[in-house]
């Protein structure tokens, strides 16, 4: 209890310090006392009593922090009995490359078993949950259908429902919550490891809201019993700079904000910066030599991208590392212009979109987008305005559904 009170007062002191520093920096200006966003995890007073005396399973990675300290370390130091940690794609420490199989291990620092949900099984098994009373989910998401943390959330909820376990969600802001955009996946044939939900490409929900959506829209055979610790002082239009990189290739705020637009290129002949230390801020391909002055060379980077597209070849294209993100925020849209531009500039258009399921005429791009319509529209030269118009019926229907599950304005 003493340690809990100590941490609580440290949090108050930190918040006061931020406000005090603002006053010192601008002594002659009117200081705006905007409420400070406080994540669910940082509101320990709201959930510590609920964890006491229970055997806890924690779904976590490097973004799971209380203050600046790992949630595993913090909760353990506060006397919480964490018996198991479940890690998503990229692993518990967040140092595995995209798509890489992650094995079970024991955390060297705490001795706690770490179960990979991106290895032999994506869903916790009955045996893995047998010695757990409560599951806690605390992972930062970035608001895209093709970012696999929401897949992990569904699998964990399904396992909890099947095994009579409750799920406590420590909610975090969605840095891309301002945008609900892109085509809505409506056909099962486009389901894959990077998309299993009938949402637009960007859904505009936090993890807590998405959990309510999964329960309410019948994604689970039986609803999961959930308890959500909401983010304090937050709404969907508020900017949020992530305190920790959510995955190895989202290593800057610029990359996080560009991710919804640039991740589309993973299903094309264009390299989106993987194999560099500025992923998701640059675009290019060797075939664009002579059409763009900007160039870079993707290489193998352990823990980020071992086999990037166009490895060891000079790529030419676009440098978006200084692109004004405010333009995307104000438009409340993902960008289509870069996709259209680079397709039109690419000399070998027949090989711009990379293969996926050839027997079904589904490209890797289609699996990421959730439909084959966009690919066919790009090839046919349909204008951006008409492409966006074709998305509207699905978007309007989804937005009406989404409204039922929002926890924040």
TrEMBL record:
Keywords: Signal. Residues 56-253 form the Peptidoglycan beta-N-acetylmuramidase NamZ N-terminal domain. It comes from the Bacteria. The keyword Electron transport does not apply. GO terms for molecular function: peptidoglycan beta-N-acetylmuramidase activity. Residues 1-22 form the signal peptide. The keyword Ubl conjugation does not apply. Residues 257-408 form the Peptidoglycan beta-N-acetylmuramidase NamZ C-terminal domain. PANTHER family: HYPOTHETICAL 460 KDA PROTEIN IN FEUA-SIGW INTERGENIC REGION [PRECURSOR] (PTHR42915), PEPTIDOGLYCAN BETA-N-ACETYLMURAMIDASE NAMZ (PTHR42915:SF1). This is DUF1343 domain-containing protein. It comes from Dyadobacter psychrotolerans.
């Amino acid at each position: 209890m003493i340690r809990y009170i100590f941490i609580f007062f440290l949090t108050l002191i930190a918040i006061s310090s931020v406000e005090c520093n603002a006053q010192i920096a601008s002594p002659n200006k009117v200081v705006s006392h905007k409420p400070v966003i406080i994540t669910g995890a940082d509101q320990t007073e709201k959930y510590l009593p609920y964890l006491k005396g229970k055997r806890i399973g924690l779904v976590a990675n490097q973004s799971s922090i209380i203050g600046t300290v790992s949630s595993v370390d913090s909760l353990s130091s506060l006397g919480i009995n964490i018996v198991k940690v479940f890690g998503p794609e990229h692993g518990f420490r967040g140092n595995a490359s995209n798509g890489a199989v992650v094995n079970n291990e024991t955390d060297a620092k705490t001795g706690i078993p770490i179960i990979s949900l991106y290895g032999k099984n994506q869903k916790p098994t009955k045996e893995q949950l047998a010695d757990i009373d409560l599951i806690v989910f605390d992972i930062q998401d970035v608001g895209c259908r093709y970012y696999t943390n929401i897949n992990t959330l569904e699998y964990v909820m399904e396992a909890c429902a099947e095994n009579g376990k409750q799920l406590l969600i420590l909610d975090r802001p969605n840095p891309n919550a301002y945008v609900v955009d892109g085509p809505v996946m409506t056909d099962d044939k486009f389901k894959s490891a990077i998309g299993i939900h009938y949402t637009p490409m960007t859904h505009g929900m936090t993890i807590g809201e998405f959990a309510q959506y999964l329960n309410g829209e019948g994604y689970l055979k039986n609803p999961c019993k959930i308890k959500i610790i909401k983010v304090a002082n937050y709404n969907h239009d508020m900017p949020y700079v992530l305190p920790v990189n959510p995955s190895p290739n989202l290593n800057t705020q610029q990359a996080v904000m560009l991710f919804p637009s640039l991740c589309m290129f993973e299903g094309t002949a264009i390299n989106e910066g993987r194999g560099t230390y500025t992923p998701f801020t640059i675009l290019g391909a060797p075939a664009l030599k002579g059409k763009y002055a900007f160039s870079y060379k993707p290489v193998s980077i352990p823990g980020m991208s071992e086999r990037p597209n166009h490895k060891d070849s000079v790529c030419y294209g676009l440098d978006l590392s200084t692109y004004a993100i405010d333009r995307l925020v104000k438009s409340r849209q993902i960008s289509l212009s870069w996709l259209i531009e680079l397709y039109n500039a690419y000399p070998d258009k027949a090989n711009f979109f990379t293969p996926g399921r050839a027997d079904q005429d589904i490209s890797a791009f289609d699996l990421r987008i959730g439909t084959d319509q966009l690919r066919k529209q790009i090839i046919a030269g349909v204008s951006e305005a008409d492409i966006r118009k074709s998305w509207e019926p699905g978007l309007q229907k989804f937005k009406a559904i989404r409204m039922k599950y929002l926890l924040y304005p």
